[in-house]
Request: fold
Amino acid sequence: MSKLILVSLTLLWCLGVAVHGFTYDEKEIKTEQGKLAMFERWRSHHKMEKISEKEKTVQYNNFKATLEHVHNTNKANKSFKLEMNRFAGMNKAEFKSKFTGLRAAPPRIRPGKKIAIDHGGPFRYANFTNIPPSIDWRALGAVTPVKNQDQCASCYSFAAVDAVEGMHFIRNKELIALSPKEIVDCAQYDPPMGCVGGFVTISFEYIEKNGGLTTEKNYPYKPQVDPCNVKKEHDIAVQVGGHEIAPMNDEALTKALANQPVAASIKMEDDFMFYKEGVLSSPCGTAIDHAVLLVGYDTAPDGTKYWIGKNSWGDTWGEKGYFKILRGVPEPEGYCGVNIYICYPTPDKTSTPHIDGEPMVHLSRDL
Reply:
């Protein structure tokens, strides 16, 4: 019986590692030998490919710097926790070149040196007042499983596609996984996008021009740019007529999110790279460089208000692919610049102001 219990506990421990990610004992970080052994165990845990000794030395030095940051952060009394995930051996510049990919705004709306987002357009939810205290579009069935952009700077395409999926579900009660790869291959603009970064608004412009998007099943994702498959591109599963950029403030974001999931952008900092759980609240800039989907908002038991976001780094990152960040900060740009680029698709090009009680999409209470 004791052997059976021991085996069961061992299995549970193994399952715990698989679910909760890479773990370590504090004793391991006290010596170089311990850190080196941890590094090898980390590589094995994340199934790292074989690399040269020179590359391995660079990776190990990055690993040690990350370990110090993660360990010190988790020892502090913060509203979030970090972990030694598969990115722990990369420096920030290398990571950004492969796993983010947002260019803040199309060049034609960049007068001077400062980024200028056009917030002067229509906002169909301006008069919307029936705002719920919290909403989570995942629970309402409007969000597809977490995707993985892999080593291709194509976050912009995932944010746009996820937003279209949400709009289509709310209007048609049908959840369809659509194709980010179509945008990566077929949205040919100057400057080019693909795996070197791109724009959420231009992604929406491409979708509108094409008349909609095909499915992920029909045009599956690969982390690379290939010639556009025109036949699949024109096999449209979901139609889109237009898009809007909301005003830059918490109120506008809340109103938009109360009606549909929205594409947004943030400044990707170290804590976001290694995020595990909780509400991110560490200091960060507003030079947005990563596109995500916002799927809701809520308030923690301690009163901390937060946005709920869906990332595109797979479901082993963060809270099964999701994250929480502060909302309600005094700056109009929002925490990490989340209010700067609030963008969402619309079923048509008309942008008539919202009449309270008659939203463009159905409210959560109607689902």
